[in-house]
Design brief:
With about 60 residues, the protein is mainly alpha-helical. Helices cover about 85% and strands about 0% of the residues. It contains two helices and no strands. α1 packs antiparallel against α2. The chain starts with a helix and ends with a helix.
């Protein structure tokens, strides 16, 4: 879990505790927070592949 996800989870939990959001909304937000990791990981993997490919082409040029 990233620092951003921890902070967002803490905020989400606090809002539930304070009655600012419903249990259903809390659950939905929590799912969105965890999906951030999946999309960030895929984007970072793709960026590494692009950088690796670029570096390879630079070396053989």
């Amino acid at each position: 879990m990233t620092l951003e996800q921890v902070v967002l989870t803490m905020i989400n939990d606090k809002m539930l505790d304070n009655g600012q959001i419903s249990e259903k909304l809390h659950s939905s937000i929590q799912k969105d927070i965890f999906s951030l990791l999946a999309s960030d990981t895929a984007a970072m993997k793709r960026e590494k592949e692009i950088n690796s490919s670029y570096q390879y082409h630079e070396r053989i040029s």
